[in-house]
Known about the structure:
The chain is mostly beta strands.
Amino acid sequence: MKSLKFFFITALMIIFVVVGHTQESCKVLVPELSGTYVGKCKKGLANGKGKAVGTDTYEGNFRKGLPNGGGVYTWANGDVYDGRWVFGVRDGDGVFKFKYDGNDSIQEGVWKDGIYKGPKPRNPYVVSKRNVNKYSFRRKSDGSEINVRLFQDGSDNNDVQDYTIVGGSGITFNCGAVECLENVTFPVLVKVSYITWNKAHTVMLNAVLEFEISEEGNWEVLIYN
Length: 225
């Protein structure tokens, strides 16, 4: 019985030693957070969900030893940022709470490479439409271009007349089955108009879609008749 008890005590001691060694060997690469760390680890670096406490504190997602993904960072002076990170830098949607002239202040919006860019742009919205069955907007990448593509019955709608795209900024040109508006300054108001057959190909219709896009990027706009 004593041997069995001794075995369990020894096993527990080994587990505690292994766990303690694992946490100690799991590094956080931000100097202000390099104190204690509890969480997931990969190849000796904080990776996954965890909490790091140094002069500052961070709780959230890590990747390769750095805050990456969603997380809350609390500075030693009490300032707090709750939002998105990319390899230790604020990048994406977030909320920053801090003191300014002794008063509580909040900065909410979008960060890029650690720099506050302003309030989060609202989603694309349609100002007016006529003889359009449905539409969609998709931000494909960073940039300053809007591509408009017309569809009917699941295929490109090439049988249109008087096709025009007018933007508050940008230059229009043809990209094959797609009309492109490049060098756009956002936010931008765009009006697409053309004449197309109805689905039964019995009547020609004047189709119009007027929309505004606020967020910078390369956008794809699909219009269905």
